[in-house]
Amino acid sequence: MKKTALVIMIVLLSVSYSFAGSQSKAFRIAAIFQTAIEEPWDGVIHQACLKAKKELGNIEYEFTEKIAAADFEKVLREYAERGFDLIVGDAFLAGEEPARRVAKDYPEIAFAFGSEFGPVSPNFSVFDNWIHEPAYLCGVIAGKITKTNMLGVVAAIPIGEVNRLVNAFKAGALKVNPKVKVKIAYIGGWFDPPKAKEAAIAQIEAGADLIFAERFGVFEACKEKGVLAFGNMSDQNALAPGVVITGPVWDMYPIIKFCTEMVKKKAWVSMDLGEWSMMAKGGSRLAPFHAFEKKLPTEVIQQVRDLEKKIINGTFRVPVDEQPPVSD
Predict the structure, then answer these.
(1) Is the CA virtual torsion 40, 46, 51, 56 positive or negative?
(2) Sequence-separated contacts (24+) of 144-149 with Cβ below 8 Å
(3) H helical segments located in 177-291
(4) Is 181 helix (H, G, I), strand (E, B) or coil?
(5) pLDDT above 70 for 194
């Protein structure tokens, strides 16, 4: 009997230890970025991963930034070889083909990448910053408060995901002010603050009194010239409190949380995660007005809040227009 009891105890201890070990195994997320994480697009993904580490518990997170095109596949493959549970990042342009190639070689790992193209079975999912809805709201504000009826937009590259923000901003402005003209400049890259500043100055000198800063670098020009701006991707008011009215905010946390939960449940499948970037899912919103809450006309704020509610409950749909916009 003593021998039997001892065997049972050893078995129970082994099972208990095994269970505890499996419970303590961390969920591992890796992220790879083509730009520095201070660039808003990749920065939003990075912040979401940090939040997941803090909020979801028992998560390990590693990332590599500023990856050159020639090194993208090598870095991604190294993470895959190390057996991460979820690998995320941006695959636009130079990263598109390498990301899909590596994912195909590691079907047991979940990949979720920013892309303008579709998902690939069984494990490559895609997302994008579907923040055209708050961009439209910024346009409404700009159209209502402009004094010159000339607006400016400084953007990255004329591809779908950028064009739809620019077009939404312009559509919102024209909806409330048909007299508005919009000057649009593309800087030809994702992160070039000096070039963005130069483009903004040219627009201001041409009469623009409000600028949608789709790219980083515009605020310096606005501060120097005394005009107002809209940020993009995150709440950027702290960068220039007297300049930034508000802006579209992209919140990647709902996507990262959803992906993590699906992998943990062993329910991961390739999919388009676009809906998780929409306002209705909490993936995008309009940044706070901060001090501009008291500076903007109350009727403008009320109009924007009413539109927000309609967008979220599905009774107003912001058009998606990815055609290259024409500068006035």
Answers:
(1) positive
(2) 144/176, 144/177, 144/297, 144/300, 144/303, 145/210, 145/296, 145/297, 145/300, 146/173, 146/177, 146/180, 146/209, 146/210, 147/209, 148/207, 148/208, 148/209, 149/177, 149/179, 149/180, 149/181
(3) 193-205, 218-225, 253-264
(4) strand
(5) yes
Cβ neighbours of residue 43 under 8 Å, at least 6 residues apart? 37, 233, 234
Q: How far apart are the first and last CA of the chain?
A: 92
Per-residue pLDDT tens over the stretch 245-271? 999 999 999 999 999 999 999 999 999
**Going from the N-terminus, what domains does the chain have, and what CATH number goes with each?**
25-127+252-281 (3.40.50.2300), 132-247+287-313 (3.40.50.2300)
Cα distance between residue 167 and residue 184, in whole Å: 10
- Collapsing DSSP states into helix, strand and coil, what is residue 58? coil
What distance in Å separates the CA atoms of residue 266 and residue 211, rounded to the nearest whole number?
45
What are the pLDDT digits (tens) for 131-186? 999 999 999 999 999 999 999 999 999 988 899 999 999 999 999 999 999 999 99
Q: Which residues on neighbouring strands pair with residue 213, listed in sequence order?
A: 154
Q: What pLDDT, on a 0 to 100 scale, did the predictor assign at position 5? A: 45
Q: What DSSP designation does 158 have? A: S
The answer to whether 204 and 225 are in contact (CB under 8 A) is yes
Strand order in the sheet with 210-213: 181-186, 150-155, 210-213, 228-230
| Cα–Cα distance for residue pair 100/120, rounded to 1 Å | 8
Which residue type sits at 151? L
CA 259 to chain centre: 15
Phi-psi region of 212 (alpha: psi -120 to 50; beta: other; left: phi over 0): beta
